[in-house]
Structure formats: structure tokens, C-alpha cells
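Protocol step 4 of 6.
Sequence for Phosphotriesterase (Streptacidiphilus pinicola) entered exactly as in the expression construct, tag removed. Do not edit the line below.
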Amino acid sequence: MTVVRTVLGDVAAGQLGRVDAHDHLFFRSVRLPGEEQDDATAAGLELAEFARLGGGTLVQWTPYGLGRGAAELPRLSRESGAHVVAATGLHQARHYADGVVESVAGPRLAELFVRELTEGIVPGVRAGMVKVAGTYHGLDTHARWTMAAAAEAHHATGATVGVHLEHGTAGLEVADLLCDELGVAPTSVILGHLNRFPDDRALRELAATGCFLGFEGPSRAHHATDWRLFDALASLIDAGHLNQLLIGGDTVVASARATTGEGPGAPYLPRVLWPRLRREFGAGAEAAIAITNPARAVALSVQGRGELREKPTPADSPVR
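Step 5 output, C-alpha cells:
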């Protein structure tokens, strides 16, 4: 049985329901002073509203050191009825207070990731994926270091590697490094923030890598490209890449919550985006993007004690 590691334990991938494939209930960065998402009550309201509108699972991409709220996530998941997947990993160095990245540079970074995936971020709360980040149109030394550790953690645990692409760029470099050099299967890699660089030709080239393609939003910071989302999805669907597409909310700042801020927040997916997917592309395509694809994307590719289990390739998905 293929499983997904949630904050309440492993569940069958087929039990996730509709999935917000990239979001944040908790997030804190030195780059966003005054916009910290550190209020558990507000996070609970957001998750509860997401669930009330039909959301089944939220995948939180907040990595190590950025205020994940790990101790609160199990309670919020139980109270809302929605599954939550937490992340280990490391973001760009610029998001951290002085000394945080240096504090994990001495120990082997992969060991930290594996420990949080297998033993827990806090007792009883295990991460279900690894989140790392590229840089603008390239990969710096920090990105290569964190991605090498993420690949090692993947090989040890089967966890998916989700990648923040800065403004949606450097996807090919990431795929070359993770998949070709470091041996991570493309079906265990999510290339995120592609809504921020909606170049149809570049997107089709990325799709040819076999990686999952993440589109998040709408975003206040990137509203200039929000209107291109459905054009980008249509182009990729027409080119045969429906089974690689993912949608997330990516609520990074407190003011963007739907329930305690100005929105749109995680509830925007069940309220607006998923119904629009059905209207634009049909129920089968909406089910692929909201249910089938994310279930495959975040499923562990290791079963038992080190026994490898291949994730299905996009062509193997039952939803076309």
C-alpha cells in the first residue's frame, strides 16, 4: 500500500481527498517582518474553513527553522478533520536569523532531514516531505548543499523533495541536479512556483523531465502573473501533461489568510480554484489535479524497511 506521512501518522494515499499541495499554516521569515504566521488559533480557523469547503489535505512546505508549528499541527488536524503533511528541509539562507543555518552546517544536514522524517520534528510528529530552494535563474552553493542532503534523505526514506523555484526559474537546473546527478526519481520531485514564470515553452520543457509541476496562488506578491494560471494549465494539458499538475495556495504571510486576514488563503482553492478547474477542463481533469496527482506526488516511495516501491509515472495514472 502506498502511504502518505501526515502529522497524525501514515495514511493510504487514496484517503487524502482534495489536496492543497503547497501551503503554510505557520511561517516566519526575517524577510517578512510583521507578517509572521505564528498564531495557532488563526491557523486553526484557516484549516477548519478549508476543510468545511471540501479540502481533505493541506501540505505545509514550511521547513526547518521557520516556525513550523509542529507541536500544534496534530491538534489542528484532528479538530478540522483535514490531514496535514509537514516538511523538513532548509530554505534559502536569507530567510533565517543569524546563526540558524550555521547551527546545522556542522552536523550532516541529511541526518537532520532523515531524523525529522523518521523520528519526528517534535515527539510524535514526523515530517512527510523535504523542502529546499533554488535561486534566481540558477543554483548557488547553499542550494546545491541542501539539495544533495535532500536527495540523500529521499534515498533513505522515500520522501518527496519539493523545490521552491525562485520566481519560477532554474527548474531545469534543479531537475538535472536532483534527478540526473543525485538519482532522485522525477516522480519524487515537485518543482514549485511555476505560476511565477508562465513561459509556455519553458513549462513544456520542464514537463518533459517527468517531475511534478506546482502552481500556487493567487499571490499578492505575484498578482501580475495570476491571470496566466489557466492558460499555463491548458497548454500543459493539451501537451499531455495533465498527470503532473499540482495546485496550492501558498499562504506565506498572515495578512493573506482568508479567515483572519484579507485573503485569499487556503480556502480559495475549494471556494474558487477547484470549481473553476471543473468548469474549464472537466471533472476528470479537476480530480487529477486536486486528488490523484497530489496523492502520488507526496506518497513515500519506500515501503517497509528499505524496500523500494516505484511511484507510478504520469503515464500510469488512471486519470487522463
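Step 6, annotate. Residues 141-157 form the longest helix (17 residues).
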